[in-house]
Specification:
The complex is a heterodimer of chains A (515) and B (76).
Chain A: H1 4-43, H2 46-66, H3 71-79, H4 82-88, H5 90-116, H6 123-152, E1 157-160, E2 165-168, H7 171-175, H8 178-208, H9 213-248, H10 250-257, E3 263-264, E4 268-274, H11 277-281, E5 286-292, H12 295-301, E6 307-308, H13 311-316, H14 326-348, H15 352-363, H16 365-370, H17 390-419, H18 427-453, E7 458-460, E8 464-465, H19 466-469, H20 475-506
Antiparallel strand pairs in A: 1-2, 3-6, 4-5, 7-8
Helix pairs in contact in A: 1-2, 1-6, 1-8, 1-18, 1-20, 2-9, 2-20, 5-6, 6-8, 8-9, 8-18, 9-10, 9-17, 10-17, 14-15, 17-18
Chain B: H1 2-22, H2 26-50, H3 54-58, H4 62-74
The chains are: A mainly alpha (515), B mainly alpha (76).
């Protein structure tokens, strides 16, 4: 039987994953459209205009059906996660307000010009609008990812016990947090890769059907170049993410690799199958694994011999490596919570002297660094509560990485065939390409599963676990809205796929959004 | 004079959107229908009926909201 927290988490996961079905294509395809239109404006070749308008049509369908699906997550913050919403204070407010204003003005204005303005504005103004849509869409993602990065690595803020909120002390520290920058780059490059696969997949289908040959060949060339560059950047930013996770969320890294006992010169598991929990707890973690020696140490710390801590090092502690046990963190978290309780009681009884003295303790760097930073550990005594779901994190991570490297090869082959002008004869590859589209979505969703499930139980790393973040409401009401969202989003996804398939089958007939 | 220029400018923008919507293709119309139904479901049904803001609905001011959350964060 699922409880309130399970339903609230399931609902948020469902909403986020459905929302993410629409976002990456928008992030990536806008760049491809802008590049194609640039070629049209430079060359004056009307075929490029036709190509641009065809992909713009598919972008329009995806954008219109996906837009505002993310706003439901904001509703969920207020309804299901009210303690969390309050606790994060203005950290979310500022980036999300900027995102809302930017998305509304930049995207709505220039998207209208993209679709309605072909014969109304100059070629260069239209081109500028297409580039601004790409820039605007990706900058909108920046603000959301800044907010998400703060949850993974809460910097630039201080907790105020009087208001029970975190207050921003440095906007720039929040904005330029290395986690935020890397997350932004990794996310937008993943969108670029997905969109390139989308274009190549559909173009390949056209080639197989011997339809729209020129459109397909040109689209594949642009997307294969763009996709190859983006996929290499994706690998690079993924490496950056791994290094940050090793430093900031080492338990997540251990779960990603199924590493229970830390070691120097740790290997990276290329492919592996995990044993049952009982066997894993007994020390037999893998039923089978193919491991690349020392690669994990090198990947995480840039040193092949570096020690990488495992799940047991965190649970039981490893004094030789300076790792506190979860038990010790629980004790420190309880001290911080008790002090907050004392503050609340002193405040309620009007004992100003006591509230002032406790407030001073909250402001002390030593208290913040040694106690309040473990505040979230004070909510549950069970050591296992602080270990994420290892199989889900492990498999999601490996699916993402294997597919990611596969996409590099995919683009390289298509680029090679494109330059050798042998694409129409490569029937195996043309048949394969449309099936890679769903795999790109699988890889993209897997990335978010690693990022979000891998940091459980935290809504805010080390500060607020889900058990404290959730609103104390009736689980049945959350279950009802879960079902409502599942139905709504499924209908939307079916609508998108059917309108999209119809538009693809019809080919580049109706241009843009107008007749 | 200035007001006339503004009016002309606003009128041109309005005309740009109006003409665009008047000339929507069949797929454009289908997408807009889905979009409007979706926005109605999100804002008129989900937001108003199922997803009210818990703290805004149940507490008068920020002080009360803060106290409530503090209570939740410190309860055993």
């Amino acid at each position: 039987m699922l409880d309130l927290i399970d339903w609230s988490r399931a609902q948020f996961a469902l909403t986020a994953m459905y929302h993410w079905l629409f976002v990456p294509l928008t992030l990536g395809i806008t760049w491809i459209i802008a590049m194609m239109e640039t070629i049209y404006v430079k060359s004056g070749d009307p075929e490029w205009k036709k190509i641009t308008q065809f992909w713009m049509k598919l972008f329009g369908i995806n954008f219109a059906i996906g837009v505002a699906t993310g706003i439901i997550m904001e509703f969920e913050f207020g309804t299901n996660w009210s303690n969390y919403s309050w606790f994060v204070g203005d950290i979310f407010g500022a980036p999300l307000a900027i995102e809302g204003i930017m998305a509304f003005f930049l995207e709505s204005t220039f998207i209208a010009i993209m679709f309605f303005g072909w014969n109304k504005v100059s070629k260069k103004f239209h081109l500028a609008s297409s580039w601004l849509v790409a820039i605007g869409a990706n900058l909108s993602a920046l603000w959301i990812l800044v907010a998400n990065a703060w949850m993974q690595n809460p910097v630039g803020t201080e907790f105020n016990p009087e208001t029970a909120r975190n207050e921003m002390v440095s906007f720039w520290e929040v904005l330029f947090s290395p986690v935020a920058i890397n997350k932004f780059l990794h996310t937008i490059t993943s969108g670029m890769v997905l969109a390139s696969i989308f274009v190549i997949g559909i173009s390949s289908w056209f080639l197989l059907k011997k339809k729209e040959i020129l459109l397909s060949l040109r689209s594949i060339k642009v997307s294969a170049i763009f996709g190859l560059v983006a996929s290499l950047l994706l690998v690079l930013t993924g490496d950056g993410s791994a290094k940050q996770v090793a430093r900031i969320q080492p338990m997540k890294l251990a779960a990603m690799e199924g590493l229970y006992d830390g070691k120097e010169g740790a290997g990276l598991v290329g492919i592996g199958f995990l044993n049952s929990k009982e066997k894993r707890d007994g020390g037999e973690v893998f039923a089978f694994k193919f491991e690349m020696p020392k690669v994990l140490s090198w990947m995480a710390f840039g040193d092949a011999g570096h020690f990488v801590a495992g799940i047991n090092d965190f649970s039981k502690g490893n004094p030789d490596r300076g790792i506190l046990s979860t038990g010790e963190k629980i004790e420190r978290g309880k001290v911080a919570r008790q002090l907050l309780t004392d503050y609340k009681n002193a405040s309620a009884s009007g004992n100003l002297a006591k509230t002032d003295s406790i407030r001073r303790i909250f402001d002390e760097p030593a208290f913040r660094d040694n106690y309040f930073r473990y505040f979230g550990y004070g909510f549950d005594d069970d050591l296992n509560y602080y270990i994420p779901n290892v199989p889900l994190t492990f498999y999601s991570f490996h699916i993402m990485v294997i597919l990611g490297f596969g996409f590099v090869l995919f683009f390289a082959f298509f680029l090679l065939f494109s330059f050798k002008e042998t694409l129409p004869e490569r029937r195996f590859w043309l048949k394969l390409a449309p099936w890679i589209i769903p795999l790109a979505y699988v890889a993209s969703e897997s990335g978010w599963i690693v990022a979000e499930l891998g940091r459980q139980p935290w809504t805010i790393q080390d500060l607020l676990p889900t058990v404290a973040a959730v609103t104390r409401i009736d689980a049945t009401s959350v279950m009802v809205t879960f079902i409502l969202f599942a139905v709504t989003f499924t209908i939307l996804a079916i609508a998108e796929i059917s309108i999209m398939l119809k538009a693809i089958k019809k080919g580049p007939v109706n241009h843009g959004g107008t007749k | 004079m200035g007001r006339r220029i503004d009016k002309t400018w606003i009128g041109r923008v309005f005309g740009f959107y109006a003409e665009g919507f008047r000339n929507l293709s069949s797929w454009g119309r289908a997408v807009w229908i889905v979009l409007l139904i979706k926005l109605f479901i999100i804002f008129a049904i989900i937001r108003l009926i199922f997803m009210p803001d818990y703290l805004n609905k149940n507490y008068e001011n920020d002080r009360e909201r803060g106290r409530h959350v503090l209570e939740n964060l410190t309860e055993n």
